[in-house]
TrEMBL record, chain A:
Domain of life according to the entry: Bacteria
Protein name: Lactate utilization protein B
A Pfam cross-reference name: LUD_dom
Gene3D superfamilies, per the entry: Alpha-helical ferredoxin (1.10.1060.10), NagB/RpiA/CoA transferase-like (3.40.50.10420)
Every 4Fe-4S ferredoxin-type domain range: 298-328
Automatic annotation (TrEMBL), chain B:
Domain LUD: 92-191
One Pfam family per UniProt: LUD_dom
Protein known as: LUD domain-containing protein
Domain of life: Bacteria
SUPFAM superfamilies named in the record: NagB/RpiA/CoA transferase-like
Length: 464, 192
């Protein structure tokens, strides 16, 4: 349980795990995407690893010169005719967006995928202000209709089955009852959203990369929803975290080769749109958001998390994510990367997330910008423990463990007692209060400890 | 202090000592492979069509889209479908376009994408709002990969530029691939 009474990752994962068949399906689907990523990476042969290395080093450089690059970007973007806004935190970001809408006297907008606006809870904020926001990415529209949040940064409704989407569309979009064909349902959404694109005058998009050298930004989608929104609207607002910068246009060659291959196994997204100047007669606003990023930049051990290009590869490969679902992370960005970003924003609220990992390291192996994700998860555990964010019971247990392990006599007695108990009164160990017993069969207790076995066999042998 | 100054000060304080920017140059010795471009495009749901010498673009369009009612282009070589009023037209009115024909600057063999800018498009929404998209690219204008693509783009000026690789698509419903999410349901690249 978290401090504010909300459920933590383990409790939410337990809920997700009640439907075993669904967990297996979720697991398989994401693993399939991971395999597509592997094929796409291997298709580049010897080029792949040097590309990752270069991407990582470009980002290291950028972070080490970020204040200069932000100013260079601002200057060039303004020269291109964009209006540049700066937001220190989520609240200011939301206020800036709202003030632009107010000036235009607009109550209805379209928005394409932007994890930053999810992080800032922009939709909730605007709803309070009486603004109707339509998410135009199909997956995001599905979760929005269901009054949920995305469970994956690239595949927002990966936890939804087509039968449920059919039912949802029947209720909200009037598709015939019982129709679950993905083509039919996609077309239903296409017709529904086409009308929104044609009538709404303000479009919000996210940003995948912003280029300091040219003052332009790049948005990548497969659906074309960012472009449909932006090119038909009178006002385009693009929202980005300050870590999205890269120095030069040619650096895009490196990142665009990595992004889609890592995300979905595609060689590139269908659209990689470079917005440099507003369309004639259009307003183009860009909101640069800090919201904790400058703090993370100052944490040496966690700085590298800001290299993330939001491909989601670490989600798809993670054995914990695949079997616990995105909502168990109770944060806009789930998965391994979300688990190292979230505690930076609020250690208390997200203290459980660095523990939602087996530390197997698969996330670090697939990361296109070589973030040492699993090492940072491990480091966060230490920080959280030092700062006192662990439950008392865990401190006690760890203390007892330390005492036992440091005293051979204690260790031997404890081992004997454990083997004895598991054999004669298994209920002492195998009960609902032991988290290790949940979903697991306890092992057969051995007849003797390793020390005992060694004394009997090897030692004797050595003496002979 | 404004948020701008506060953010810049915080970033400056937090950022580590300057690390070098890798300056790798990617110059390949081989030209882009047209066959690889076509194969990749087909593998991502697009279609490629190699124009032979006698064949005109208009003939091919008529053959590929016999039922198309509204075909538009802002390429001056496509006289019949030329959109003369492109400067004054309300862009939303293109929503009933069956086929839009655009001229691409070049194609990328490794991912099947073509590069176009506002210069060729005139109307930014054109390749997105149409039902079917046709892009024309010269066979000698295929580059091998994205590094070469950006070598070619250099620091060119444009208001808007886009790599387009295949039709608009989604797999958000149970990972079933559906072509035509919001934009074109098909994309054909005519290679001449």
């Amino acid at each position: 349980m978290n401090h504010n009474g909300t459920k933590d990752h383990a409790e939410l994962a337990e809920k997700f795990n009640r439907d075993e068949e669904r967990v297996n399906w979720h697991d398989r689907t994401l693993w399939w995407i991971r395999q597509k990523r592997d094929k796409a990476a291997w298709s580049l042969g010897d080029e792949w690893e040097p590309l990752r290395e270069e991407a990582s080093r470009i980002k290291s450089h950028t972070l080490s010169n970020l204040s200069e690059y932000l100013q260079e970007f601002e200057k060039n973007a303004q020269a291109n005719g964009m209006t540049v806004h700066w937001a220190a935190d989520a609240k200011e970001h939301n206020q800036i967006v709202h003030s632009i809408l107010s000036k235009q006297n607009i109550q209805q907008i379209v928005k394409s995928k932007s994890m930053l606006t999810e992080e800032c809870h922009l939709n909730d904020y605007l709803k309070e202000e009486g603004i109707d926001v339509i998410d135009t990415d199909l997956g995001e529209r599905i979760v929005q209709l269901a009054e949920e949040t995305p469970s994956h940064i690239v595949l927002p409704c990966i936890h939804w089955k087509k039968e449920e989407i059919g039912e949802l569309f029947h209720r909200h979009l009037g598709s015939p009852e019982g129709v679950i064909d993905p083509s039919f349902l996609t077309n239903t959404a296409r017709v529904h959203l086409r009308e929104k694109f044609l009538t709404r005058r303000i479009a919000i998009t996210g940003v995948n990369f912003a280029i300091a050298e040219t003052g332009e930004f790049v948005v990548c989608t497969n659906e074309g929803n960012a472009d449909m929104g932006a090119h038909l609207a009178d006002v385009h607002i693009a929202c980005m975290g300050i870590e999205k910068l890269i120095p030069k246009r040619k650096n895009l060659g490196v990142f665009l080769r990595l992004l889609a291959r890592s995300a979905t196994g595609q060689p590139i997204t269908t659209y990689s749109s470079h917005f440099k100047k507003p369309r004639k007669g259009q307003q183009l606003h860009i909101v640069l958001v800090d919201n904790g990023r400058s703090t993370q930049l100052g944490r040496e051990d966690f700085r590298n998390s800001l290299k993330c290009i939001r491909c989601g590869a670490c989600f798809n490969t993670c054995p914990v994510y695949r079997r616990s679902g995105g909502h168990s992370y109770h944060n806009a960005i789930a998965g391994p990367i979300g688990s190292i970003l979230a505690p930076n924003l609020d250690m208390r609220q997200y203290k459980d997330l660095p523990f939602a990992s087996t530390l197997c390291g698969s996330c670090s192996n697939v990361c296109p910008v070589k973030i040492n994700i699993h090492e940072q998860l491990y480091q966060w555990r230490q920080v959280l423990t030092e700062e006192g964010y662990q439950p008392k019971s865990k401190y006690m247990a760890m203390k007892a463990m330390a005492t036992t392990l440091s005293k051979p006599t204690f260790f031997n007695i404890a081992g004997k007692a454990g083997r004895w108990a598991m054999k004669l009164v298994p209920g002492v160990v195998s009960n609902q209060y032991n988290p290790w017993y949940k979903e697991r069969e306890m092992p057969e207790p051995p007849n003797e400890s390793f020390t005992e076995w060694y004394q009997k066999n090897r030692k004797k042998k050595n003496e002979q | 202090m404004s948020s701008r100054e506060a953010i810049l000060a915080a970033v400056k304080k937090s950022q580590p000592e300057l690390l070098p920017l890798p300056q790798q140059d990617y110059v390949s010795t081989v030209p882009g492979d047209v066959q690889r471009f076509s194969d990749t495009l087909e593998s991502i749901g697009g279609k490629s069509y190699l124009l032979n010498q006698e064949e005109g673009v208009l003939e091919v369009i008529a053959k590929l889209f016999p039922d198309a009612k509204r075909v538009v282009s802002v390429d001056t070589s496509i006289t019949v479908h030329y959109l003369h009023e492109y400067e004054s037209i309300v862009h939303h009115s293109l929503q009933d376009v069956d086929v839009a024909i655009i001229k691409a600057q070049f194609g990328v063999a490794e991912n099947g994408a073509v590069w176009v800018t506002e210069e060729e498009l005139k109307i930014r929404v054109m390749p997105f709002i149409c039902e079917h998209l046709v892009a024309i690219v010269d066979a000698k204008e295929i580059v091998p990969n994205m590094h070469e693509a950006y070598n070619r783009i250099g620091l060119a000026e444009y208001g808007f530029g886009v790599f387009i690789a295949g039709p608009s698509k989604t797999a958000d419903i149970e990972q079933s691939l559906v072509l035509g999410a919001h934009g074109p349901k098909s994309m054909t690249v005519l290679i001449r």
